[in-house]
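Reopening: structure tokens for the pyridoxal-5'-phosphate complex, inputs below.
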Amino acid sequence: MDINQQSLAYGAAKSAIREIAAYAAARKAEIGAEHVFDFSLGNPSVPAPDAVRASIERSLALPSSQVHGYTPGNGLPSVRAAVAASLERRFGDGTATADDLYLTCGAAASIVVCLHALVNPGDEVIVIAPYFPEYRVWIETAGARCVEVMADEHTFHIDADAVAAAVTSRTKAVIVNSPNNPVGVVYPRENLAALSAAIGPDVTIIADEPYREITYGAEVPWVPSIHPRTLVCYSYSKALSLPGERIGWVLVPPTCPDHDQLVPAIAGAGRKLGYVCAPALFQRVLADCVDEPADVAAYERNRVALTSGLARLGYEFVEPQGAFYLWLKALEPDEQAFFERARALELLPVPSSSFGCGGWVRVGYCVEHATIVDSMPAWEKLVASYGRSAS
Ligand code: PLP
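Re-run output (same inputs, fresh job):
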């Protein structure tokens, strides 16, 4: 049968992260969950706040059509107004109105509608490597070319000179993810200003910000205040631990050039892709929980245990400032070989080749605290297998 070969290829290739997570689940069933140290998926270990449950219970008392019915394509006006008011409280007057927001099924859908709103066949979209692997899939299926630009090899901040060298007349957008998955860095204001100067005023920044609230003291600059042509993509998957509920938004800031065309283009992209509307029940949850703080304490505890434990064993890593990933240097240049040695000890990080660069692994620490503590003897054996001992 003459089916779509691009879709077939993406389906057959599978996500390396999900493959490792599936392996971890099978291995846990085989030898017991407490013997397997699964650091693969970015699935929050912190429970959703009580306010979410209370809001769901309140909503369930409403007539069925209000809870389970279709909503307008861009979301319920009252919910968009609540989100806009929250953004204005946090980032200043003029940040957003209800009409500038399009509610989505999470950051993934937000980025996809932005790409489909922006690019024409043959356009180019820059990603800063290492990067979230789905970006390439979304860029290519929107008809554009994915152009990888390596981050600074020491700081893992954006290398603005390298971006400037990659910009062409076909460059439409740059996807910027801060706090960053997989590296855990937060880009400082000066770094984003340098990026803005490198790309010029006509290239759009797609600011992918599902980890905005998960930081350990670093300020996360508001990108539209630095680069006016910015579309902000947000989701409640990480901050409120709701990844399976699929709820987020795109903001076209009022100050964004071509705002009046971009708002309908984003709605049109959603229509084109058959997105219809974000889940009605969770739209209602947002109205109640929009200012609910993320519970960062558990990730902070994990971060401290993991970084202090691994530093003691002599591992090198990038000090995480946000999100819940540790970017750890492999103990040999071939990160796949390093991963295989780790796997033999039941340690399951994700090799950096999945993120577009070599020599590292990503250790997701959105896990139970005991997983980190109990994994330390295995990390010690791993270091020892390279003939090294704790420093
Ligand atoms: N962007 C980044 C950097 C992510 O890490 C993820 C999920 O892990 C997403 C986007 C997709 O998030 P969502 O669950 O909101 O679609």
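Residues 369-385 form the longest helix (17 residues). The chain has a mean pLDDT of 96. Marking as resolved unless the reporter disagrees.
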